[in-house]
Design brief:
Layout lengths: L1 H7 L8 E7 L4 E4 L5 E14 L5 E13 H10 L5 E14 L5 E14 L2 E4 L2 E4 L3 E3 L20 H8 L2
Parallel strand pairs: 4-6
Antiparallel strand pairs: 1-3, 1-5, 2-3, 3-4, 5-6, 6-9, 7-8
Length: 164
């Protein structure tokens, strides 16, 4: 009897990631053989925590990001090494052959939206660069209606981002 109940249970299809970090190097822009723009870059996302001795430690997670179409072109034009970004996307894996003939699988984030977190100078005054770039390659809209990523962050994370 429990098997029939288990067979009826369906896991939700959810694949969503939101991460903030700094670009580790300039984005790499290419076009596919059919001319579709694509950009790859990686970010370093820091995590602060207290160890067993109650001392603050920091851990860094390096994450690969891929963006397509107009979003890729915007990243090429506006991002560079060291820029702080907030990325909303989904995890994807891909397998490819290395030069020595072995298969390699990597997991990266396919970006849906990217928000710049750096400050910029305009007219001699600091302004937040709150540009939000979105992947418009899908015919359906993202499930998020609010483009203000601050609403998705905890109060502690919001404070950390303001310090950048």
């Amino acid at each position: 009897m429990w098997r029939s109940n288990m067979a009826e249970f369906k896991m939700p299809e959810l694949n969503s990631v939101i991460i903030a970090g700094n670009l580790t190097k300039d984005p790499i822009f290419r076009q596919t053989t059919n001319g579709t723009p694509v950009v790859n870059f990686s970010i370093a996302s820091n995590r602060r925590f207290r160890d067993k001795n109650d001392e603050w430690k920091e851990d860094v997670c390096y994450v690969g990001i891929v963006a397509w179409n107009r979003l890729a072109e915007s990243c090429r034009d506006k991002l560079k090494k060291g820029n702080a970004v907030l990325v909303d996307g989904e995890l994807q894996s891909r397998t490819f052959k290395t030069d020595d003939g072995n298969n390699r699988t990597i997991v990266e984030i396919k970006a849906r939206r990217i928000q710049f977190l750096n400050k910029r100078m305009s007219n001699g005054m600091d302004d937040d660069d709150d540009s939000i770039l979105e992947d418009d390659s899908d015919s359906h809209d993202s499930s998020m209606d609010d483009d203000n990523f601050d609403s998705l962050l905890s109060p502690e994370d919001s404070e950390l981002i303001k310090d950048n």
